[in-house]
Here is the input.
Amino acid sequence: MSNDVATKKRISLKNENVKSQEVKTVETTNVNQPLESFDWDAYASDCPSRNRTVNERINAPSGWRVYSKEPYAGELLDLMLEHENKKPSQFKINVGTTYTGKVHSVSTEWALIDINYREMIYVDMSKEDIGIKDQILLNSDVDIQILDDGTSNKRGFVLGSISAGIKTANFREIMESIEGGSTAYVGKVGQTIPGGGYIVEVQGIECFMPGSLAGINKLADFESIVGDELYVVPMSFSERRGTIVVSHREYLKAMIPSKIEELRESLNGQMDGKVTGTTKFGVFVEFNQCLTGMIHVNDLTPEYLTKHKSREITPGDDITFYVKEIVNNNKIILSQVKVEVKADPWRDIEERIKTPVEIQGIIKSVKDYGLFVEIEEGVTGLLHISEIQDIIDIKDIKSGDSITVQVTRIESATRKVFLKL
Here is the structure.
């Protein structure tokens, strides 16, 4: 028999006498051809797997394609690449670890994420948070947490969760912000918990806010803020609770300077606030979110004075008042009796008085360590004894005398004026 002819046997059942027949078929010219001249295209045309498709879950390097759908296909690829001395960006993944990747494809059922691993990471869209699904867009960058490395499911897929990945990334970001203590996040107060505190959800992370950190002053009604969205500042991590501790009070404290400035612009109008407590001297009031002032008993209306004496004023009560004086960021004097508020002489003083400059002042008081000199109504500076002891005798000076001084420096924040002759 010649080399280009192959013999096949088949069984004919056309009659009772089973006969063996020989059928001669002519094969292609590839038979017994040397490897270097083998016609692979001709072979592929008769290959039963010519309609095969690429295994999309295998993240093969450029120029490589994997068609096998077996669970071990990725591992075989690694072995081949190692044998061929290829060095793609492959690495080992760990369940529970979060990686950053790019959305390779997405459908209503599955999303495939490329984290530069040998395989795509599968994300079950039905298990993703509703708010997260809208962020899973083709070619977008996402954080993904590995749930299964392919050893615990029948298909051998590597499974991950973008919702869990985002929460982990957010947790890490919030933890990192604790050290600075200057970052505020929007948090939703979910519920009160035993022991006096709240569960506050911040970027999908459940945090703990003690009741003492829920406001500048103690809340009269703890349930009043449940369901509210508040700005909170991460403060620490509670090992006992296993949660991040946040503070709304710290955010409010940071707002005080700007709220004081706003208050200076409208000192003469009637204002509303809430009583936070009472003493025998007067009533403490919280207003403008973060400011606290006191109404002295002498400045209460007759109606409120009667209530104060009979202890009928309680925390949480509404109250109206006027701002009588802003002493500093920590002390605001209020009154229920309308008063004419004078303009703050320290406001814009550094713009009005350009140092160094000579000014005619009035001596307000004489001390052993120097002279207090009023350079403007309500603005007094210290002329230290070291500046005058060799020039004039302090015993010859009395209050009310005029004196010419040089203003060398003004600190409006601390309300200090530095003088010399």
